[in-house]
Write the structure tokens for this entry.
Amino acid sequence: MTLDERIKQALRKNSQWEGSAEALWAQIASQLEEKPKPKRQPLWLGTAAAAVLVMALVLQAVWSPHPPEPQLPQADKSAELRLFSTALPPIPREAVPGGGTVELVLEVHLTPAGTPSPPQLEIWQEGTEPALVIQEELDGAQLLREGVLIVQAPSEPGSYRLVVHGSVPGEGQLYAIYGEKLVEVAEPEN
């Protein structure tokens, strides 16, 4: 005997109701209220309503006047352009004796891959027309290690601009080196 059959048998033994399911349903069905079935709307009614709505919108758009063009406010005079400018402070010059030493601090930073250009020291004499006084090639590896260059100032009095620039490979990358300083070489004291 299967489990389903045992359950049915146990229910028959222990059930105190001795009626039939059909009789019970007939009794319940007689107590239910019958709901009226909803009537279907004809298909043409929805189409006609949409057509009337579209016609109303078209007629309203045709008969209504166009909105007036917006008018921009008229300015009495043209707007004034105001510029602000400031003068940059002069770059301080370091006073050195003729032939003395100058310490030039270098900026070293990574640069995009390219061809290395050996670092150079250029000393320009300032004046109405700058003139290149000295140009020499430098050791890039030493500049990368130290980050400072000690330069001998020119012996002639005047204003000079010391510039170091170039790019050096190191540790598998390319480094740009740059440094600049203005010096004033004083006349020798007698």
In short: Strands lie at 94-97, 101-105, 107-110, 120-125, 131-137, 148-152, 158-170, 173-186. Residues 90 and 182 are 11 Å apart (CA to CA). The chain is about 25% helix and 30% strand.
